[in-house]
């Protein structure tokens, strides 16, 4: 290849090239860079020269150059170049050697792109990219850069200036372009300027001494650091080898050139390294250090460095707590087994909080479960037919007063409302929503309003042997409300009609005795109707009064309920007749075998008695506090318990001696009658009186409802069975009063001893409820009337079922 006069580059000055390149730690393309400034050829087409160590000496090459150079070039050199340059041995001669010239545009396949300049596309002012560590050179800013001492150009110029001590550098070495007044002269001007002021050492001597003469203050710091390097002194130890790179690839000049490939270049993998690379003795590219992949051992945050200061961002309290937990302080070891989340991990550990998923991800019901059809869902009770007119609101619920709880009580076990199965609300609660825990139905509403399976919490399933059932879709705490038993509220007459006409061919009835001789028919109703029976249930059906209205709901039992558990309650099924007896398939160890009623032993007597006792106690205490018959002081010593009339008399005698005439112990009934009198007579605050009478009506009974068979039964039978259940299973013990009156000079002292017995009057009333014709209210005493109302509210669940 020969250099053409209009070639896109000028012959590089290799000496300059190598020095500048080394001082800048850039690939040896500096001269070519400057060449590219004046060239249309892209930067990667720059030609560099490989000097073969075996090639003839530089002097010979120089000669060859001189011989082959065109006459005008030779002339220029002779004119501009000082004589000593020609005489300089060694490196300078080699630098002057004629480099082989390659048309890299052709090699790179870009020679066919045409001459854009010819088409008016001015590219001379454009920035061009160089190979390797690119040097962006703007032609116009070149002069400015040189003037800036911090700029790379200026640094390079400084080096060049330092090299003036070299004999071969003592004079400017104008290239052909410089001689033509090209912009390159800007760069060499510094040398020219430096030239006269510098004292040139003997030829060929470039020592540190000579370098040391330079004013170091003008040399940039980074160059001063390099002063004792060979590169700085421009003494090469090894032969300088130049390679040609194009488009990031090594170009072997000896290889025949292939036509330009239009296809996208295949990315070379490690296995198929380009042969050129192998042949290349020493590629002068900046070989990137291969990055080592990091694999995380375990966990989301494994492999991360622990923070330098783990207490950063912690509060003072957290820092204090952390100091007490040395196990959390950094041990220096990488924790691979249990990395904690990045930001809150330490906080969680300090607070001792367990990790918790934001919601329950477990959905136990596989898709495609058969769902009951022919079932109209209804989540609220609805009055049907005459029931609406007949239904009367009890005045009990209208003048309800607030409970006496304090915020710290939270309307717990001692809450008057709770003990009477009244749900607290804004009208009857003393402590408000924030503290009150006696709002089960309100909680249920709020939970369901959120929507979604988890909040609804239950789902219908198909059991293997008992038809449909209900399963929990979440966990429930003990005694937590699960779902309401809702349906159509119908009269007894309507119930009878439906059974005889509508449900006569049905296998299951979903009927439950409710309130005021009404019945809930959940044939159209809530999911609760699908809850099956178990002799060892995990739930119970309880009736509550909510905002003055009775409502039934399924509550968790004494144990928590886990996700996926089937929900059951004890129907306490009264088959009424032998033909209605159904065998139980609950499979519990204590299974009674039939869906029959619980025996006396199974009725958990102690539990029932305890509940009654506690409730009566709480009621009495509250009443006494309200009425003021006894000071409400907890510190007051307990009065002796009177167990017999004799004892009572003795106590009374003692008290009489002390001149007191107060009641020692009053039953709920006696307090109530006093309260009533007080309401009528003394006009005490209305709320207190109302509460007192309400408490009395609420002699606590077992509210767990029961089911019984009704298939083929008549209205009379239904009523009778209901009353039987009520009479037998309520477990309500009426209060027998023994009043002892003792008249003394100071007055009359009345003592009442209470004995819990089966109340004949209550039994009578209860039995009467089983009659077709209700007892006329006029024939009932006031106490009986109240009692009846209470019993009305304690109707049982009726689940009618055939054989
Ligand atoms: C109110 S329904 C319950 C839902 C019913 N499994 C269904 O598919 O609609 C009551 C009826 O379910 C059946 N059942 C409920 N619990 C049972 C049990 N433990 N053993 C046998 N049958 C049961 C009885 O047929 C009973 O009459």
UniProtKB/TrEMBL annotation:
Give a GO cellular-component term.
chromosome
Primary localisation category = nucleus
Q: Which residues form the SET domain?
A: 456-572
Q: Which GO terms describe its molecular function?
A: histone methyltransferase activity
Key words of the record: Chromosome, Methyltransferase, Nucleus, S-adenosyl-L-methionine, Transferase
Give the span(s) annotated as Disordered.
Answer: 1-235, 249-291
Q: Where is composition skewed (Polar residues) in this entry?
A: 163-176
Q: Which InterPro entries match?
A: AWS_dom, Post-SET_dom, SET2_Histone-Lys_MeTrsfase, SET_dom, SET_dom_sf
Output the Gene3D superfamilies linked to this UniProt entry. SET domain (2.170.270.10)
Subcellular location(s): the record lists:
Chromosome; Nucleus
Q: Which residues form the AWS domain?
A: 398-445
Gene Ontology BP terms: methylation
Is-annotated flag, keyword Hydrolase? Answer: no
What is the protein's name according to its record?
Answer: Histone-lysine N-methyltransferase-like protein
